Amino acid sequence: MRKLSLLALSSLLVPQIVWAQPDTQSSYRLLKLDGRVVKWGEPTLGTATELTYGFITEPTQFDDARNCQTTGSLTPILENNKIPESEFLAAATNAFAMWESVSGIRFRKTDHTEVADILIGSDLGNHGWAHADVLSVPSGVEVDTITRGLVCLSTNKVWNVGFGKNENGQDLQYTLTHEIGHAIGLNHASPFGQIMSFNYGEAFADLQQGDIDGVRRLYGMPTLSHNTLATAEQTPLR
């Protein structure tokens, strides 16, 4: 049985979200589909996993998705906002690295999108700013298993790399970090104060304590040292 979630990053509360009760007193919420927590890898809370991610390069239809159903290349977003591909790749690498640096998740970029766990592309439907979609299957044990994550960005919004560049735009790294959080099993937290809060803001660029507590609840503590900044030359999107 497939289970889908409706997740979005917006300047307004998304009314379709069904809020779960906090798992601890810290400001995080685990994503629950059909009342069950979902995560990648071993279906046990606190266990590490390795994931791949890739970038969609051509129009792709996901008929079993609620969000990001019709996706495409990120090129129009970069061209419309005059963002060099290298800057976008650095922002995406940093977004994944932030989650990796504080938890037991390891991420690896792949050019083979047909096997990537998490796919990132443009939202050809242009519904809001950005969305994530999670597909999971029952595990029969403690939690259900995520089998696919989608992240999509609107082509008709203003995007920046960095804060304070355009009051009508949103920072790509912050937005990607938020949506990746959904794709790995985190729900919206409080209105403000965490990367996973449902309101966009530029008061901070790093994961906050609730974000860290949430991802560690799912995947445990980091087991290796990680770089948190993209300093190496990045392979192209396509």
From TrEMBL:
Residues 15-221 form the Peptidase metallopeptidase domain. It comes from the Bacteria. Keywords: Hydrolase, Metal-binding, Metalloprotease, Protease, Signal, Zinc. InterPro entries: MetalloPept_cat_dom_sf, Pept_M10_metallopeptidase, Pept_M10A, Peptidase_Metallo. Residues 1-20 form the signal peptide. Its EC number is 3.4.24.-. One of its GO terms (molecular function) is metallopeptidase activity. This is Matrixin family metalloprotease. It comes from Hyphococcus lacteus.
